[in-house]
Amino acid sequence: MKVAYWPGCVSRGFTPELHGSVAAVAPKLGIELVELNRASCCGAGVIAEHSQELADSLNARTFALAQQEIEKGADFMMNICSTCQGAQTECQERLDASAAYRDEVNKHLTPEGLQYAKGLVNKNFLWVLVEELGLDELRSMVTRPLTDLKVGPFYGCYIVRPTDRLDISAENPRDRYLEQVIEALGGTVVDYAGAQKCCGFPISLMQKETSFKMAGRHLGDAKDQGADCLVTPCPLCHLNLDMQQPVVSRTVGRDLQMPVLHLPQLVGLALGMAPKELGLGKHVVKPTSVIDWSTSVVGAVGSLSAA
Q: Which UniProt keywords apply (predicted)?
């Protein structure tokens, strides 16, 4: 499987361990990454508030770059950020719905020799695991099952709503894929109230305390339900849930100490990779300092102090 790979902004800036863990895990999954180095920010919905055409032009440019790679042999476009998935899917819906608008946007791409053509397939890494690789194949690759590891899924907003735009249905339950992947890796799914709610990041610049309270509520709910950690396909959610967790804890008056893993990190652990390979030591709440790995998952890895 060969993909035109869009890592997004955050995975190459604030959460480089996400970008690195995807690069490490992909070959083990049989995924060849062709990185779209020239692609720009998706806008995360913010740019569209000021100029929809500008946001759509930026994303159309990324889509056109991906289509160039597809013409060379890539199968489809893949992203690793659920916020990118949501923003780009919304943009693509507008572009594909109107040939006139698509032509207008494409005028901005002409100086670079780029053009977006209707119909690009763009899938988040989570969707690729379930729909392209397949759960049975993923399960067969597991060499270190996540036995006794209790994992709370955290989707965030952009990858579960609106359901029509994201093609979520009973036949295509993309809003249950995290649970399915956790189980395929041998882990135990923890159900808690905040799994599909907003992490609070989108309002962090305007209502910081409210944002932190939202994050604290979700982290606390997962902890109360017995979760050892959370896993998310969204690096922006990771910023609010992990990087901000010390101040979140102070805001809600509770010592949370809840590790938050990026999805490819969880996959990598089950495939036998060491915590250091996956960047687990880069987190603010270091998973190796909270989870009893000797009984949960990585007892045979060796020294975790270097993670």
A: Oxidoreductase
Q: 0.90 exceeded by the pTM?
A: yes
Sheet holding 122-124, edge to edge: 32-35, 2-6, 76-79, 122-124
d(CA 102, CA 237): 31
By C-alpha distance, which of 197, 262, 199, 193 is closest to 223? Answer: 193
Cβ burial of 302 (10 Å; 0-12, 13-18, 19+) is exposed
The H-or-E segment that residue 246 falls in is helix 245-252
| pLDDT tens-digit map of 197-222 | 999 999 988 899 999 999 999 999 99
Query: Three-class SS of residue 204?
Result: coil
Distance CA(230)–CA(266), nearest Å, equals: 10
**How many secondary structure helices (H) and strands (E) does the chain include?**
14, 8
Q: What is the pLDDT of residues 265-302, one digit of tens each?
A: 999 999 999 888 999 999 999 987 666 665 555 433 33
Pairing of strands 150-153, 229-232: parallel
pLDDT digits (tens, 9 = 90+) for 3-50: 999 999 999 889 999 999 999 999 999 999 999 999 999 998 788 888
Q: H helices within 16-109, ranges in order? A: 16-29, 46-50, 52-71, 82-97, 99-107
Cα–Cα nearest to 53, from 99, 97, 108: 108
d(CA 249, CA 217): 10
Hey, which residues does 150 pair with through a beta bridge? 188
Q: For residues 50-57, give the mean pLDDT.
A: 95
**Neighbouring C-beta atoms of residue 135, cutoff 10 Å:** 16
The whole-angstrom distance between residue 218's C-alpha and the CA centroid of its chain comes to: 18
For residue 238, give every residue at least 6 positions away whose Cβ sits within 8 Å of its Cβ, in sequence order, or none: 15, 18, 232, 260, 262
